[in-house]
Amino acid sequence: MPFTAPVSRRHFLRQLSAASALAACPSLTWGAEADPYHGLKVGLQSYTLRNFDVEQAIEHSKKLGIHFWESYPKHVPMTTVPAALAASRKQLNDAGITLLAYGVLGFDENETKAREAFEFAKAMGLMSISADPKPDNKTFDLLDKLVAEYDVAIGIHNHGPGHRYDKASDVEKVIKDRHPKIGACVDTGHYLRSDENPVEILERFNKRVFGVHLKDVRTIRDAAEQEKASKGLPKGRVDQLKREGKLFTVLGEGELDVKGCLKVLRAQDYKYCVAIEYEENAENPIADVELCLKTVRASF
Predict the structure, then answer these.
(1) Distance between CA atoms of residues 92 and 54, nearest Å
(2) Per-residue pLDDT tens for 278-290?
(3) Does the N terminus or the C terminus of the chain have fewer Cβ atoms within 10 A?
(4) Where in the chain are the domains?
(5) How many angstroms separate the CA atoms of 211 and 188, rounded?
(6) Run of H or E including 45
(7) Which CATH number fits domain 39-297: 3.90.1150.10, 3.40.50.150, 3.30.479.10, 3.20.20.150?
(8) What's the start-to-end Cα distance of the chain, in Å?
């Protein structure tokens, strides 16, 4: 069942403010001279809009003023059929959305399957694929070959405690001595779950950051506060809160140093997607996403 996060009165009022702004300005656009993201390609991981079909997701993105996507497969199915590729490209181009990245995709030593992903990426004009590759030499030997052949980067996506790519060191271990276009997709929320500092991680990976999933986490250690926050949450989220004392939240309402992340990315002349990924309130995330965008715009 999709999760609808309980909100405080303060947060509810902020949502109303964001919704009013959207209603008053149905299509947010800007010229290069007024770019509110100062050269960074701030967009959306379309998983945020997973409860909407691609047409609805595109319309919501347009109203939010979003011009860049990292798509997940529901919205842009992976294919190598020319007509289907052309249709997807046209649909996004007509909406003013540039598809920069795609994922998260799994990879192993199966070259046929891997080539299909890279053929799709090249045909769609992607800069990078967010990936969860099997951590063995055969898989990474194959990825070494394919990133060089197709000139499409691989960003290894961390997924928090218990995942094979939990800490930054887990990613560093597998990319060491590999092709320079094999690097990291830094998910700031999952690194916060893993008690790591996303700003420091962006600095560590430097030019080998090929994707960013920008999301926030708040820590709730007090048992009474955990009980209060658990109301209305699905079991998986309740278990996570009890185990980690942490929940995903709107950008700016948790521990993420948004300003610090953006400062590092600008200093590195980062050219890939900075994708806001909001996992909560899947039925009605639009006002929350606008709050996330406002936080980003206010952080420069």
Answers:
(1) 10
(2) 998 889 999 999 9
(3) N
(4) 39-297
(5) 11
(6) strand 41-45
(7) 3.20.20.150
(8) 37
